[in-house]
Amino acid sequence: MTNTSDQKLFKLIKYKFQRLLKIFPHQVPAYLIIAIIFAVLIRLVCVPNQSSDYKSFLAPWYDFIVINGGFSALKYGFADYTPPYLYWLVIAATLLSGLPKILAIKLFAMSIDFVCAFFTYKIVKLKYPEGKLGNFAFITVILSPVVIYNSAIWGQCDSIYTTGLIACIYFLCIQKQIPALVSFGLALSFKLQAMFLSPLLLIMLLKKRIMWYFLPIIPLVYLLAMIPAWLAGRPMPELLLVYFNQANKYKELAKGVPNFYQWIPNDFYRVVTTIGVIGTIFVILLLAYIVYKNKQEITQERLIYLATLSVLLLPYILPKMHQRYFYPADICSIILAFYLPQYRWIAIVVQLSSLFSYLGTPIHIKFFSIILGFAIWFLVKNCDVIYPKLKTALRD
């Protein structure tokens, strides 16, 4: 009797699942549909978690918007984020007010996870137009523990600006510089950390893959993104100084991030911060100059390589970084692993470094700061547009 009941239940579940699969286009593989469903379910399971940032910032901002009349709340400087993210909170607090608050707040970033995965898929498909690797890249992103942790557990929005950066890289790969700059401008309007991709953009500018007269697109997109908040009544100078105010808010050399500054006492904050910023600018200019002097073409593989190096190097050598700031490197290292399989270990190291920094265990953060330093050194040493003679000698 029990076996008969189990068989009936199994047949019912199978029938329901088959009906669900029919909703999707027939060309979509079943394993991809299953992965998407699982990715959605695991995010819904994680939604109730209330991180410290949710309690201290996101939920109070949501409540402030509700109390102050929705869109009109944007005239106040109640948050240290730029307005584009706050526009979502306005939508969440008004149009989505019927949803649980925590779900409404997290919904945007969780949805953008899939957009980020889509652009990852598009980039990988450029190299592998046939086969399943593009789908596997998509699945790797949506099921990455770091990606799930960031949006579904913490309710953070790093996937949003990172998606802009990944879109920028995709359009650079297909030599569409205007959409690339628009994507970068959108990323920058959400988070200043979009500047982690600046070494690649400078290289592409020097290599004339980006024309200088298109550069005003970036600040124009940023200004356009500020207009709704300005129309709501917030002064434009205040909107333009959001990032400046952010930079002066936290006085820590390293906030739970596995980078070089884990090993420097915060007592030296002022002098080390100055040296670190100046040193980083010098490194960016030096890297761009070396690659510019190299006459080799920036192929898709080299572009992905340099993009990964850019978003990995800057949060490692810049002071005042937080644990989430390696998020663009998390995604770019996945793309690099598909483009150049010999660098899969880089992706694993980056993912583990980010995951342990999210968990906040100091000993592991310091340990992975060493491993990440080695990974960056390895990428620099093996980059044929930085050390062409060394690479030629190694091949010979």
Automatic annotation (TrEMBL):
Keywords: Membrane, Transmembrane, Transmembrane helix. This is Mannosyltransferase related to Gpi18. The chain crosses the membrane at residues 28-46, 58-78, 84-100, 107-124, 136-153, 184-206, 213-233, 268-291, 325-343, 355-380.
